[in-house]
Each structure stands twice: as C-alpha cells, then as structure tokens.
Write a structure and sequence with these properties.
Number of domains: 1
Helix content: over 70%
Low-confidence stretches: none
Radius of gyration: 17 Å
Number of strands: 0
Order of helices and strands: HHHHH
Oligomer: single chain
CATH class: Mainly Alpha
Shape: elongated
CATH architecture: Up-down Bundle
Strand content: under 5%
Number of helices: 5
CATH superfamily: Ferritin, core subunit, four-helix bundle
Length: about 170
C-alpha cells in the first residue's frame, strides 16, 4: 500500500503533468498560427508525452492500492512574443518539473518507499533529456529567429517527430 503522503504528492504531480500537456498543446496551437508546422508538431508530441507521463503515475497509484484524485487544470498561456520566447518558457518549465520530481524523490527516500524510488528514477532520467532538448532548441531559435529562411528550414526539422510512448517500455 502506498503511504498517504506519497499518494498525495503523486496526485499533485499528475496534475502538474496534465498542466504541462495543456501548456504544450497551447504552444502547438500558437506555432500553427505562426505558420511553423514543424514546431507545432514538436509541441503536439510533447503534449502526448506529458499525458503519458501523467497516466503512468495514474496507473502507479492504482498498482500500489491507492486512490487517484484528479484536480482542476489551471489556465495556461496562449501566446508568446517569439518562437524563442516560447522555448525559453519550455526550458524554465522543465526545470520546474525537475524540481517537482526531485521533491517526490525526497519524499520517497524519507518514507523509505523503495518501490516509489525505483518508479521515480525513470522520471529523473527523463527530465535530464527534457531540459537538454528544450535548452538546445531555445539556443538555436535565439540565434536564427531573425533570419526567416533559417527559421523555416529549422522548423522543417521538427515535422517528422513522432510520439513514442516510452512509459510503456
């Protein structure tokens, strides 16, 4: 059985994961409106990944005999000054998510909840990748966004990204 404190914090994280999904779906819409379909696709895949992350936690609570308590999703932004500004927000958001996952791990360690420690290791590894990707894209966009031809070419790189549910591996 999962401890009440761990259950509550994971339920809070499910909400954070779904909020992240909603943020990335909003960004996908904004990039579509900016005629940047590749970056819109990248954000849509991010949306799918965040939903999968939340659902992995959802299933975990049930596997541990706990209760999932879904919460309202707070409003997300709907527009940004520039593509790089959007990715600056993504990077900062992923850093916040990393701190939330680290807090979950702190709780699991405090409670000596070895099952949750094992479970959360996947998220810790995932956050390293999430932050690195957001940082790399932000840096490139900042360098090229004033060059429309370069921005269009860079945008095309993201059109082929496909969702792979790594939570099922």
């Amino acid at each position: 059985m999962i401890a009440q404190k761990m259950q509550k914090e994971i339920n809070d994280q499910i909400n954070a994961e779904f909020w992240s999904a909603y943020l990335y779906l909003s960004m996908s819409s904004w990039f579509t409106e900016q005629n940047l379909p590749g970056l819109a696709n990248w954000m849509y895949v991010q949306y799918q990944e965040e939903m999968a992350h939340g659902m992995k936690m959802f299933r975990y609570i049930h596997e541990r005999g706990g209760e999932v308590k879904l919460q309202p999703i707070a409003k997300v932004p709907t527009s940004w000054k520039s593509p790089s500004a959007a990715f600056d927000e993504v990077f900062k958001h992923e850093q916040k998510v990393t701190s939330l996952i680290n807090k979950l791990m702190d709780t699991a360690v405090e409670l000596k909840d070895y099952a949750s420690i094992s479970f959360l290791n996947w998220y810790i590894d995932e956050q390293v990748e999430e932050e690195a990707n957001a940082s790399d894209i932000y840096t490139t966009l900042k360098e090229i966004e004033k060059m429309p031809g370069a921005l269009r070419m860079y945008d095309k790189e993201f059109a082929s990204r496909k969702f792979v549910d790594e939570t099922q591996e």
